[in-house]
Amino acid sequence: MAWVYLIAAMLVEVVGTSAMKASADSDNATGIAITIGLICCSYVLLSFAVRTIPIGVAFAVWEGLGLCLITAVSVLYFKESLSLGAALGIIGVLVGILLLHQGVAHQDDVATEVEAIEDES
């Protein structure tokens, strides 16, 4: 369930950041209030996720995948450009998240093996 909270936190953050951009373009106080509410909601969902997921992993996934998604929104919806360097940076973020996730998965496997050995004793 922690991963569901983390993904929800990331998606809410992306919507909140998109609302911030939209409200900045129109100088709309309602948009700013929506942005603040969504970002607060995102942090609450993130706090549920870190009950189980290590904070470093949760934050990296939340921020990294959120960065990739908001970049996609900025290019597709707000018609902003993406340089080659920025695109390579996004790829680097994704690779880093995958490596971090693999490291945590390996750590969980080792912990499970240790618990099994301790239970046998």
Contiguous low-pLDDT stretches (5 residues minimum) are: none
Number of domains: 1
Order of helix and strand elements from N to C terminus: HHHH
Q: From the helix content, strand content and strand pairing, which structural class follows?
A: mainly alpha
Q: Measured on Cα atoms, how large is the radius of gyration? A: 18 Å
Separation of the first and last Cα atoms: 32 Å
Work out the helix count: 4
Q: Level of helix content?
A: over 70%
User: What is the 3D form?
Assistant: flat
Mean pLDDT: 86
Number of strands: 0
% residues in beta strands: under 5%
Characterize the main sheet: none
Short description:
This protein is mostly helical and 121 residues long. It has helices spanning 2-26, 29-49, 55-76, 84-120. 87% of the residues lie in helices and 0% in strands.
